[in-house]
Hints:
Layout: E1 7-17, E2 20-24, E3 30-34, E4 47-54, E5 60-63, E6 74-82, E7 86-90, E8 97-100, E9 113-120, E10 127-130, E11 149-157, E12 161-166, E13 170-175, E14 188-196, E15 202-205, H1 210-227, E16 231-232, H2 240-247, H3 251-263, E17 267-270, E18 273-276
Parallel strand pairs: 13-15
Antiparallel strand pairs: 1-2, 1-4, 2-3, 4-5, 6-7, 6-9, 7-8, 9-10, 11-12, 11-14, 12-13, 14-15, 16-18, 17-18
Helix pairs in contact: 1-3
Amino acid sequence: MRIKLGDYNHMKVVKAVDFGLYLDGGDEGEILLPERYVPEGCKPGDELDVFVYLDQDERPVATTLQPLAKVGDFAYLEVAWVNEYGAFLNWGLMKDLFCPFREQKMRMVKGNSYIVYVTIDEDSYRIMATAKVERYLEQQPPAYKRGEEVGLLVWQKTDLGFKVIIDNKYQGLVYENQVFRYLHTGDRLRGYIDCVRQDGKIDVTIQRTGRQQTKEFADVLLSYLQDNGGHCELGDKSPAELIAERFKVSKKTYKKAVGDLYRKRLITISENGITLV
């Protein structure tokens, strides 16, 4: 068995000591699970899922805590402290995650948070973070279909909109005119593939695309009317900004949903807005 450093491992308890349990680490030998992390009633012969990283003396150690990221993940982490060698990021474990100066795009500042990638330094075999995340993004075009649901990590604001990391693998873009809610670097949310371009670039939306989006919002709008006296003053000629502020959708989606409800004879339309029948 080979231990996955900086990742979760399924391991067997081989012996108990006063200060914890020793787990079978295969080629790495026995690995300590300190007493503070030992589940109640756990004993030799039991098997556990644990996260393995390096302690202060660079020895493999196990924990039942779940860090904010593992090796191979992109994450938004806060700087806990800085010394002459680099920055140390809080990733939810006793020992902070090191990001050397050479792996920083700009000097990291204590208290600020940054998008980083968690990897293993080939020279020292230590777990580290790097802010130079572009080199770890997949370059091969993915086989996404339009409308496919994906996980997004908001990366950075640009003139066009927001760069995002899709499914912990690919770079994508949510255009400014598709954003109807507040977004911040580090936000995690669900998104939907809009287009995979021939050059491999991916356009993403944070609302469902096409007919499914209209149907879902029509249900939302109907519920809004039922909860607000059967009337909404926003109509075809209302500013897109007011619609986006109220419902977090585009004016186009709003008008389509209104049309759906009207065709089903659930609402009437007037200069004063829309009203439940």
